[in-house]
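Structure in, sequence out. Go:
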């Protein structure tokens, strides 16, 4: 029987605290790494499994949606089975799901195991945060959160590089297999250090109806977004049916959660202006950010001829400035109005995307990398200020529910952003392709000269036209990518007024919010009471 004294054990000391931090950081690193490592490997995965790259994006979106759905369950599971047991179980199941992903013989199986991987990963990050804070005395809580934040920022830097190198030199399956030794080591270390620090367990009612409705409407909406571009959207009965299921499911979910005594998602929090404005800003911003970082390597590899490792190198620097500046932003978020900091982040993201909207097929490596480096500045000013804004004024007992709900909305927005960005990219590419082809005729002297030159080089008329079509494709997808980048930049600028709809944050509120968020994450970034 776990006693109340064991529920709040004293902080760890000396080497135990160091090794505990390393063990928890390994699991967090592994989890965050898996959200970005597959981005540059999509073309290889899709090619090996005999599907289009568009279908391959399900490898990313299935993980994100399943991860988001698991978040609200974490608080209930932690109180039912204990934080340490749940964390270790989550890590071991993640290892097992990673092994299954690497062995997947086809895309359908991979997507199923990838969704399972995302679902079991749900408790890992919030519980690692809570266990880490419990390992440090209150005076060092800022240091603990700084170490934790650096881990989550290093992983997106390493992910594309490691994914690209593995895909080029070994096989894409190993982007999943590398989780096995890391996860087993982390689970062993956490059990060795934390098994005597288990939390009190108690039986609580679970909102099974709300959870079921959540799975139905979020799943239907994500499948609709992913299948829509293949099936001509609402001209397809299947897409139309999924849309109706998502709409009805969402309506029933809202009605049920607003009347349920123990809701799986605490929707009443949206009555608070700072919460809904901050959550909406961070969700839309993250959706735009994630959609664009998935689109960029697809364009580079499919139409610019970049191998996976080079595409990874172009994405990796995004975390450099974020790692350097995040501790500074966290230290000063109490002294500067976080609305100004968040507005600055949106301006930086808009500038980055405007830079990318001027890319052309002749852009060199340095030109392509510069916006990625600058983007790291925006990342540092994005998450921390918006988290402070949305948690301002919320009582400590509601912090876990607020943190969980905002995380759920953000992760779902990231998956939707991926689907929407790739869909618009494909549609705009088809439009540009049609417009470019119209200019290729016998009346166009440039086109005539190019075709004649190819004929003189020994190509048949059919081969020459096929070569021209490839060049047109390259230009069309480049122009389409520029369209997505430009539209995303404008939306980032439009998000700035949304941030200013929130009320001013009082001095000291930021640190309190972050501290309570961390402490409350034992209840798991969830909607548990």
């Amino acid at each position: 029987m776990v006693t109340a004294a064991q529920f709040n054990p004293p902080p760890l000391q000396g080497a135990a605290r160091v090794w505990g931090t390393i063990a928890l950081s390994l699991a967090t690193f592994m989890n965050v790494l898996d959200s970005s490592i597959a981005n540059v490997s999509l073309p290889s995965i899709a090619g090996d499994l005999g599907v289009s790259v568009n279908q391959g994006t399900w490898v990313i979106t299935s993980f994100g949606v399943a991860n988001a759905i698991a978040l609200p369950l974490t608080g209930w599971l932690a109180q039912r089975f204990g934080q340490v047991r749940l964390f270790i179980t989550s890590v071991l199941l993640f290892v097992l799901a990673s092994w299954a992903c690497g062995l997947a013989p086809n895309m359908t199986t991979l997507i199923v195991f990838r969704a399972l991987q995302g679902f079991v990963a749900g408790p890992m990050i919030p519980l690692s945060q809570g266990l880490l804070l419990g390992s440090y005395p209150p005076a060092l809580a800022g240091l603990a959160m700084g170490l934790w934040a650096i881990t989550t920022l290093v992983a997106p830097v390493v992910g594309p590089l490691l994914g690209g190198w593995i895909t080029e030199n070994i096989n894409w399956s190993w982007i999943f297999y590398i989780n096995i030794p890391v996860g087993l080591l982390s689970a062993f270390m956490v059990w060795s250090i934390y098994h005597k620090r288990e939390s009190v367990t108690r039986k609580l009612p679970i909102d099974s109806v709300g959870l079921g409705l959540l799975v139905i409407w979020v799943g239907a909406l994500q499948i609709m977004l992913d299948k829509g571009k293949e099936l001509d959207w609402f001209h397809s009965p299947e897409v139309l049916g999924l849309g109706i299921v998502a709409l009805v499911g969402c309506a029933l979910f809202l009605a049920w959660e607003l009347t349920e005594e123990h809701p799986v998602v605490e929707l009443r929090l949206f009555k608070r202006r700072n919460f809904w404005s901050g959550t909406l800003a961070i969700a839309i911003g993250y959706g735009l950010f994630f959609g664009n970082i998935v689109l960029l390597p697809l364009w580079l590899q499919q139409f610019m001829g970049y191998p996976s490792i080079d595409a990874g190198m172009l994405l990796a620097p995004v975390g450099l400035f974020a790692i350097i500046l995040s501790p500074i932003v966290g230290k000063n978020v109490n002294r500067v109005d976080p609305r100004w900091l968040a507005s600055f982040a949106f301006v930086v993201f808009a500038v980055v995307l405007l830079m990318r909207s001027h890319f052309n097929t002749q852009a060199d490596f340095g030109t392509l990398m510069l916006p990625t480096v600058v983007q790291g500045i925006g990342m540092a000013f994005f998450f921390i200020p918006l988290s402070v804004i949305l948690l301002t004024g919320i009582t400590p007992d509601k912090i876990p529910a607020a943190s969980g709900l905002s995380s759920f909305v953000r992760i779902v927005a990231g998956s939707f952003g991926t689907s929407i960005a790739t869909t618009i990219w494909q549609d705009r590419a088809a439009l540009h392709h049609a417009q470019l082809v119209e200019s290729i005729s016998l009346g166009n002297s440039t086109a005539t000269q190019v075709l004649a030159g190819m004929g003189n080089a020994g190509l048949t008329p059919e081969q020459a036209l096929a070569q021209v079509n490839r060049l047109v494709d390259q230009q069309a997808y480049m122009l389409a990518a520029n369209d997505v980048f430009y539209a995303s930049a404008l939306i980032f600028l439009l998000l700035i007024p949304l941030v200013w709809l929130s009320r001013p944050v009082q001095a000291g509120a930021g640190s309190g919010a972050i501290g309570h968020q961390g402490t409350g994450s034992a209840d798991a970034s969830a909607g548990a009471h």
